Amino acid sequence: MVLSKRIQKKYTLGSVVSDEIESYWHRNEHNPRASFGGSLRYPGDDSDTLPLVKSRYFRCLSCAKQNWVAKLHHVQLSLIQVTPRMTSTRQPFPSESFDLLAAEEAKHWWFRARNRVILWAMRKYVGPFNRFLEVGCGTAFVLDGVNKAYPHSNLYGSEYFEEGLVHARKRIPNATFLQIDATVMKDVSQYDVIGAFDVIEHIEQDQLALNNLARALESGGTLLITVPQHQWLWSEVDEFACHVRRYSRPELIQKVESAGLSVKYTSSFVSLLVPLMWLSRARPSKGDYDPMTEFHIPKFINKSLELVMRFELTLMKLGLRLPLGGSLLLVAKKP
Length: 335
Description:
Layout: E1 10-13, H1 15-28, E2 39-42, E3 45-51, E4 58-60, E5 65-67, E6 75-76, E7 80-82, H2 98-104, H3 109-125, E8 131-135, H4 141-149, E9 154-159, H5 162-171, E10 176-179, E11 191-197, H6 206-216, E12 217-228, H7 236-240, H8 249-258, E13 262-269, H9 274-282, H10 299-317, E14 327-333
Parallel strand pairs: 8-9, 8-11, 9-10, 11-12
Antiparallel strand pairs: 1-2, 1-6, 2-3, 4-5, 4-7, 12-14, 13-14
């Protein structure tokens, strides 16, 4: 969560508080639950202080780096956030990628094609709804598509990283956005529809996250999920994206059903391109992986790939459930 009082003035930590925090961190740096309460004040003005949110992990959004609180001097209060802990050992997504995604998603064949698949599935399997939550909404590219297709719905977006929400708020000013870790969600019967699109593969405790999403659905509500599929397609692309796994269809169905939901539909997509995906990922790496290669492709190739995906969606609309594919779509209902 972001500090609740978003004031566009500069603050500094009091020197005494700073010394105490630094000493405290050195004593507790290996304790994931360590916390400290202090205060923020105007530079040169001791009369007006604000509480410092109690958490060990802070992130400066201007540089996207975690810092000891004691070193956060003269920063804008609105640029300090508490960084929730999805796991104790890994970062679930490269947070520096959000600027790239915000600039490229609307032009890239894969993001555009996935949006069409998601919106088709919503029209076919969901029906009218009021409250829609997208978990792991990133820059809200998918949520923007939902907003245009269902303009009278109440839209909510949650994201682990504030860096993504910065773009999401600009994209859909009328939606409600929250910074939430899906493994600690406490919502009960709040939403008619929940979407998690290429999210749970980033989470080590994916069953816990699915349980939380199921609990947050109203009775009769719908969960839509997309995930990367087939572990034999694993490559450095997955490693850069901080994936924990690529799913098989039986594995995803089993985990969703274990969360108490009834699976109504599954299908692969990005199926016709699987041979190209396998070839591109099987070839030996030439140095460090450059994520820009996924985006900077010639326009005619980008358009050609999107045409292939349009044809694939036509097959899905005709009732063909594709057995193989780089991605997997699942629709489930809560009894």
